[in-house]
Amino acid sequence: MSPFVRRVRADFARRLFVLLVAVAPSGCAARRDTIRDWAQVVTLSPEYGSQDDRLVRWTRPPRVGVYGPTPSELTEIQWVVGHLAETLRGTPGAPVMVGSDPPPSQVDIEVHPLPLADFDGFARRHGFRHTPGNHGYFRMFWDDAWQLQRAYVMLARDQIRVGSLRHFALEELTQCLGFAGDTNHFADSIFFSRAGSTGHAQELSELDRQLLRFVYTRVEPGTDRSTFLALFDRHWPR
């Protein structure tokens, strides 16, 4: 009986190997297609407004200032800026923390913890509109060459729960680097959104970090969708 048992096990192992070889490439291809779709939505399809299917990003390290924070708010936002700076170290997108309440002329990205009721007035004073229903909100401004020049972040300090500020600050500040779209792919991504939920990520996922570095090392401001996808196909790891 022993030879028969060994032969059955060997046959089963061979069939399993053939099945895995047949399935693995298609599974990898499907995931890569999902990542490709996710990447172009995040970078070229903003949640609000329009970029005319062009990529916008910084060409110099943006300086971040926080206005009127409590000590705990300042600590969380400093952590977020450091996390993004570490991710983008050596690239033009690595943000630099200027501090609390610096002169606006010394800042590129202003972060303002505010009561939610103050969002509309703040937005009007700074030349943009606030879309209701958001406890965190950002707005970017760029020049004719699609280079980011200024950005604002509002955080509703009276609505954001204790323990959630880091998530909201990370989402809005990451989007201020040129990643303005949300998708329903990858629940651990800072760009995740589904049925009104924005997820709970407290740090960038591996894919998030990979996308940030890809954009700031491979993609120029003003890149259109077809060129972006061609660069993805050429440079994104397989």
Structure characteristics:
238 residues; alpha/beta; five-stranded mixed beta sheet; 5 strands; 43% helix; globular
Round the mean pLDDT to the nearest integer and report it.
Answer: 89
Count of β-strands: 5
Element string (H = helix, E = strand): HEHEEHEEHHH
Radius of gyration: 22 Å
How much β-strand is present in the residues?
A: 5-15%
Query: How do the strands line up in the largest sheet?
Result: 2-1-3-5-4
**Secondary structure: helix percent:** 40-55%
Are there runs of 5+ residues with pLDDT below 50, and where?
1-8, 16-24
Shape: globular
Question: Helix tally?
Answer: 6
Distance between the termini: 46 Å
SSE class? alpha/beta
Can you summarize the main beta sheet?
Answer: 5 strands, mixed
Oligomer: single chain
Structure notes:
The chain has about 240 residues and is an alpha/beta fold. The chain is built from six helices and five strands; from the N terminus they run αβαββαββααα. A five-stranded mixed beta sheet has the order 2-1-3-5-4, covered by helices on one side. Helix 2 (about 70-85) crosses helix 4 (about 165-175). The protein is globular.
List the helices and strands and how they pair.
Blueprint: H1 2-44, E1 63-66, H2 71-87, E2 96-100, E3 109-114, H3 119-125, E4 136-142, E5 148-156, H4 165-175, H5 206-218, H6 225-235
Parallel strand pairs: 1-2, 1-3, 3-5
Antiparallel strand pairs: 4-5
Helix pairs in contact: 2-4
